[in-house]
From TrEMBL:
<keyword id="KW-0804">Transcription</keyword>
<feature type="domain" description="HTH asnC-type">
    <location>
        <begin position="4"/>
        <end position="65"/>
    </location>
</feature>
<keyword id="KW-0238">DNA-binding</keyword>
<keyword id="KW-0805">Transcription regulation</keyword>
<dbReference type="InterPro" id="IPR036388">
    <property type="entry name" value="WH-like_DNA-bd_sf"/>
</dbReference>
<protein>
    <submittedName>
        <fullName>AsnC family transcriptional regulator</fullName>
    </submittedName>
</protein>
<dbReference type="InterPro" id="IPR019888">
    <property type="entry name" value="Tscrpt_reg_AsnC-like"/>
</dbReference>
<dbReference type="Pfam" id="PF13412">
    <property type="entry name" value="HTH_24"/>
</dbReference>
<dbReference type="InterPro" id="IPR036390">
    <property type="entry name" value="WH_DNA-bd_sf"/>
</dbReference>
<dbReference type="GO" id="GO:0043200">
    <property type="term" value="P:response to amino acid"/>
</dbReference>
<dbReference type="InterPro" id="IPR011008">
    <property type="entry name" value="Dimeric_a/b-barrel"/>
</dbReference>
<dbReference type="GO" id="GO:0006355">
    <property type="term" value="P:regulation of DNA-templated transcription"/>
</dbReference>
<dbReference type="InterPro" id="IPR000485">
    <property type="entry name" value="AsnC-type_HTH_dom"/>
</dbReference>
<dbReference type="Pfam" id="PF01037">
    <property type="entry name" value="AsnC_trans_reg"/>
</dbReference>
<dbReference type="InterPro" id="IPR019887">
    <property type="entry name" value="Tscrpt_reg_AsnC/Lrp_C"/>
</dbReference>
<dbReference type="GO" id="GO:0005829">
    <property type="term" value="C:cytosol"/>
</dbReference>
<dbReference type="InterPro" id="IPR011991">
    <property type="entry name" value="ArsR-like_HTH"/>
</dbReference>
Length: 153
């Protein structure tokens, strides 16, 4: 892993603000020539510092008005059952994030659906079909205070 210098950090900050910036635009902002900036961006991608480029979508404008944090406790904590649970969760599109956590629950998921009936259907049909779930606890988001994808570098 290459240690990030000030130029690498500046590239990452600019790309987090606007991932559509072209190399020429980055080089102008950094006051560097095209080739070194191009090579740095490619290295950051190769090394996995830049994982991917995405478009951030306003969830409400596409009908995903209900955000839920769902905590899951597993019945059994064997490696095989844990892997089976993770594999199943990876295939469910409503689950945006899933984190293995400590405490009373084993996992916390961030779920987006249209409304409460769709969440009920999600719980009954998708989560309910997974064999190793012992219990769930749902927390419904009433208002979003801060949602930021920028990592300070």
């Amino acid at each position: 892993m290459h240690i990030l210098d000030d130029t690498d950090r500046a590239i990452l900050r600019y790309l987090q603000e606007d991932s559509t910036l072209k190399t020429r635009e980055l080089s102008e902002r950094l006051h560097l020539s095209y080739t070194p900036v191009y090579e740095r961006v490619r290295r950051l991608e190769r090394e996995g510092v830049i994982k991917k480029y995405v478009a951030l979508i306003d969830r409400e404008k596409v009908g995903k008005k209900l955000m839920v944090f769902c905590q899951i406790a597993l019945k059994e904590h064997s490696l095989a059952m844990g892997e089976k649970f993770v594999e199943a969760i990876m295939a469910i599109p409503e689950v945006l994030e899933c984190h293995n956590i400590s405490g009373d629950y084993d996992f916390q998921m961030k779920i987006l659906v249209n409304d409460m009936p769709e969440y009920q259907q999600f719980l009954m049909q998708k989560l309910g079909s997974l064999e190793n779930i012992g219990s769930t606890h749902s927390l419904f988001v009433m208002g979003e205070i801060k949602n930021n994808s920028v990592i300070e570098v």
